[in-house]
Write a structure and sequence with these properties.
By secondary structure, the protein is of the alpha+beta class. It has one domain: Ribosomal Protein S5, domain 2, CATH 3.30.230. A 4-stranded mixed sheet has the order 1-2-4-3, sandwiched between helices. It is globular. The mean pLDDT is about 90.
């Protein structure tokens, strides 16, 4: 599997995004929440959304880039066939290692993260 995120792996379209947000499946941790919905595909699609009060545009874009980068690195360990929405909350350090731990924690809590390939 490629390490990069392809266009197909980005959640797009009003109906698909609305369906993902209406999903009752969620798991949250400090500074991050994930919503997921089965999509009956051979790959996951992701969407990264900061809350409205996150800060400046620069801070929001940096946070989204960081979450996408962490997901790109661990996507081989994530169960396939889901639409994933990562909701980012302000007030936490923007270090790569902290975001990595947060994302891995919420995916493990959601039972979507496998430790082995």
């Amino acid at each position: 599997m490629k390490k990069s995120l392809t266009k197909a792996e980005i959640l797009r379209g009003h109906r698909a995004i609305r369906a993902a947000f209406r999903s009752p499946n969620s798991a949250s941790g400090r500074g991050l929440k994930v919503l997921w919905k089965p999509n009956s595909r051979e790959y996951n699609r992701i969407l990264v959304v900061p809350v409205r009060k996150y800060g400046s545009a620069v801070a929001r874009n940096r946070a989204k880039r960081l979450v996408r980068e962490v997901y790109r690195e661990i996507k081989d360990h994530v169960c396939v066939g889901y639409d994933l929405v990562f909701i980012i909350y302000p007030g936490f350090d923007q270090a790569y290692s902290i975001r990595f731990g947060q994302i891995r924690y919420v995916l493990q809590k959601a039972e979507l993260y496998r430790n082995t390939i």
